[in-house]
Specification:
Largest sheet: 3 strands, parallel
Shape: globular
Number of helices: 6
């Protein structure tokens, strides 16, 4: 998913992503992720804070940061609950968030999918000044992240279901 999103930006504009250490079990994968520009985060609170500090540093220098706010890989069309990290990052850096909806990449894990032509959907919404939602949400990270989730859902347009009427 990160590769697809990175390709949405100009060729020389690097995108820094936050990635969990869990799927990168081998040290070589963690090394490659860092070289590519991923900010690797472990399970502890200290590692989480260090990762957010690195991402804030990138944002303060005008860099692009990519976050998958669900925090997990899912095969659902509608995003699951977003974690608070994206809201905290927006608040700390006072930067806008660009909501992006992706669908169809989960199936890339299946060999059957690779043998057919992939159908991947990527939709981009309007930038959201997420940090301005904090007062209305009682400064709650989860509530502010839920606002972003709703913005992502708004750009998702499910296929129209044709309703056939019975003839009498």
């Amino acid at each position: 998913d990160g590769t697809l999103i990175a390709n949405l930006f100009p060729p020389l504009k690097r995108v820094y992503f936050l990635v969990s250490k869990r799927p990168l079990k081998l040290k070589i994968y963690q090394y490659i992720a860092k070289v590519i520009g991923y900010v690797v985060i472990g399970n502890g609170l200290d590692e989480y804070n260090i990762a957010l500090k690195k991402l804030n540093n990138h944002l303060s220098r005008g860099k692009v940061v990519g976050i998958f706010p669900e925090g997990i890989v899912t095969g659902f069309n509608i995003p699951t609950k977003f974690k608070g990290g994206v809201a905290k990052l927006s608040l700390d850096s006072k930067t806008n968030v660009l909501p992006i909806y992706m669908n169809g990449t989960y199936e890339l894990r299946s060999l059957k999918y690779w043998l057919s032509r992939p159908n991947i959907t990527i939709k981009i919404g309007k930038p959201v000044d997420l940090y301005n939602y904090f007062p209305a949400c009682g400064n709650n990270l989860d509530k502010v992240s839920a606002v972003l989730r709703e913005k992502v859902i708004e750009i998702f347009e499910p296929k129209e279901i044709e309703v056939l009427e019975k003839e009498d």
